[in-house]
Amino acid sequence: MFKKVLIANRGEIAVRVIRACRELGIQTVAVHSEVDKDSMHVKIADKAVCIGPGPAIESYLNIPNIISAATITGCDAIHPGYGFLSENTYFADVCESSGIRFIGPSKESVHKMGDKIEARKIMIKNGVSVVPGTTEPISVDNPDLEKIADKIGYPLIIKAAMGGGGRGMRVVPSKESLSNAIQTAKSEAKNAFGNDKVYLERYVEEPRHIEFQIAADNKGHTVYFPERDCSIQRRHQKLIEESPSPFLDADLRKKMGKQAVKAAKAVDYCTVGTIEFLVDKKKNFFFLEMNTRIQVEHPITEIVSGVDLVKLQIKLAAGEELKLESEKIKLCGHAIECRINAEDPDRDFMPSPGRINGLNLPGGPGVRLDTHIYDGYQIPSFYDSLICKLITYGYNRKEAIARMERALVELKVGGIKTTTPLHKKIMEHDYFRKGDFQTDFLMKHIYGQQ
Ligand code: MV4
To answer: I need a surface site. Which of 55, 204, 282, 380 has the fewest CB within 10 A?
Structure first.
């Protein structure tokens, strides 16, 4: 096992990783920017090193400074958290060539999943269902374009091969707008990703976004965990996640879970990761993409499965064998996560940084709070606005929702605006309570558009 781990991140995830390390008897080194010197992760780590000024590009993305900090303090591994350098294969390479283990996937796995066209091909070859569409890049010069599009069927969606997470997509309702849309999509993709490869998929209407946590060791043993339903989003930013999905039964869970394992094995994956699926009204499911990192919403899976995913991730990186079996991971109870952001939901979710003045954190039965905030904490304006993951759980979904409602009442974050009122609205919404929601829930039912 590692002796000392550097956490190349900040905020709640840095705190989460430090907690996992301490439980494993591993020493921790926090890194922080100048504006984060009074942050929680700095306070609770064994050691802390300042790696640069506020802007992330000069600190949390500053590879030479992070590697120097790890070397000087004698770390044998780096945990990248999520965001920042977590999916940067160049960083992973620099770690390894500096004799420091990168706690994450190999660059080969990341690259195979990074090109969405390649990923689709690999999935088809390995018996994973993908949305009907093309397995080659398309262009307007292709004489068979109309035929190819007709065969897939409208509405279509054009996606950038190097895009992901909702960036670089364009819906095409009918053949009239196809070639214009392809041209525009290509030039946008070139601008955003430095690569103009795009492909076509059948557009799945009102889908659910359901993802499977997987874990794999370096012997190829791979398991899936109960799914997370992440359908409640705003502009591709998740707001609420829950596990299990109110939409899945044990049979579909097993079918999708098995495909998630196949998808991970197909790219020789060897750490924790997530396979995203779209599920349509008829419960057809389609592989979308893979997230090659620990995700924000991992705690709900920890609660319903009883497995500490961050400790597991660290143990797998240290070469330990996975001792779990998919069939033996039991699904117990129901968990919901609300992402509390320092944003003003009445002002188009404008960031609301500032000093927290008057804080009351909820607790009691069935509440888990993953947060780095404290009373008097100054939220910097340089980073993302997630300040708190409020997670509740119970015997069933009804109890988890009741606990979330009362925890949202107990939660008071004075001095700044937060998304707490929006979460209260969603919790009391009839369609949410019935579990009847798709990815358009917020726009359709809360903002009354579309
Ligand atoms: C789709 C789709 C419908 N049909 N693909 C958005 C995130 C990116 N990973 C893929 N996304 C979508 N791909 C097909 N063929 C609808 C979306 C989508 C979406 C997916 C999950 C969660 C929220 C979403 C919101 C809008 C669109």
So the answer is: 282
201 CA closest ligand 1 atom index: 15
pLDDT score at 450: 62
Say which CATH class 4-103 falls into: alpha beta
Question: What residues contact 18, with CB distance under 8 A and at least 6 apart?
Answer: 7, 28, 30, 41, 44, 45
Ligand 1 geometric centre to CA of 279 (Å):
10
Ligand 1 atom with least separation from CA of 233: 23
Q: Which atom of ligand 1 is nearest to the CA of 231?
A: 22
Helix (H, G, I), strand (E, B) or coil at 81: coil
Asked if residues 3 and 314 have their Cβ atoms less than 8 Å apart, the reply is no
**CATH top-level class of 132-202:** alpha beta
What are the residue ranges spanned by the domains of the chain? 4-103, 132-202, 208-446
Tell me: the pLDDT tens digits for 145-174?
999 999 999 999 999 999 877 777 999 999
CATH architecture of the region 208-446: 2-Layer Sandwich (3.30)
Q: Which of 8, 253, 346 is nearest to 18 (CA)?
A: 8
Within 6 A (CB) of ligand 1 lie 131, 157, 165-166, 201-204, 207, 209, 233, 236, 278, 288-289, 439
